[in-house]
Design goal:
two-stranded antiparallel ribbon; elongated; alpha/beta; 5-stranded parallel β-sheet; about 45% helix
């Protein structure tokens, strides 16, 4: 199966989740973590989902799924314990050209939820195209153990330094080289950080042309 790996911006996008049990909880959390605007349709819900609805974190319609419910949504997840319902939701979403995931039913999925390792802005996503979520979870645990807990903070400092370099350096192969060198070095937030000193020294010897500085 050929899948297109992508990191998708969901901020304020309307997302529908059909079902509100244990299967749905983690999917709702994932959508909320990406700042998606989540609506849930289900006659009953787990206590966690009820709490989210009461706190205004999601919108919950306490009823069965009905034809037409997928209209105007950007993304749909169906996670009921009734396969026929999940497939009906998927087929309706497909007819509307809305991407849909039927949880634990790979043939009825346009996308899969990967196992993810997170450190701040760094995300490492692992997918087996639904073949073995357990194997993806095992890999996630192995990577999670090996990746330092402060990688997110390091990446934030590196990102700040990268912006400094791109503002001071002309766009050329030398700038590309210095950015790759910095990504392999220890980066820190204080002014005397060796990586910052390296970046400043390189900028002095390779200044931007006057018109680029302006």
């Amino acid at each position: 199966m050929d899948l297109f790996p992508i990191f998708l911006k969901l901020t304020a996008r309307p997302c529908l989740v059909v079902g509100a049990g244990n299967l749905a909880e983690s999917k709702i959390e994932s959508l909320r973590a990406a700042n998606g605007k989540v609506t849930v349709i289900a006659p009953q819900a787990s206590q966690r989902i009820i709490d989210m609805a009461e706190a205004g974190e999601i919108e919950w319609h306490q009823r069965e799924f009905e034809t037409g419910d997928v209209h105007n949504y950007f993304l749909v997840v169906t996670a009921t314990n009734v396969p026929a319902v999940n497939r009906a939701v998927y087929l309706e979403a497909q007819a509307k050209n809305i991407i849909c995931n039927a949880v634990d039913d790979p043939p009825f999925c346009d996308f899969y939820f990967p196992s993810v390792v997170r450190r701040g802005d760094l995300q490492i996503a692992i997918s087996t195209a639904g073949a073995s979520p357990a194997f993806a979870q095992r890999l996630r645990k192995e990577i999670n153990v090996q990746l330092p807990l402060d990688t997110g903070d390091w990446l934030n400092d590196l990102g700040n330094l990268r912006r400094e370099v791109t503002q001071a350096e002309p766009l050329n192969d030398e700038r590309k080289l210095i950015l790759h060198q910095l990504a392999a070095r220890e980066v820190c937030g204080y002014d005397g950080c060796p990586s910052r000193v390296l970046a400043r020294e390189h900028a002095k010897t390779n200044p931007l042309p006057t018109e680029e500085k302006a």
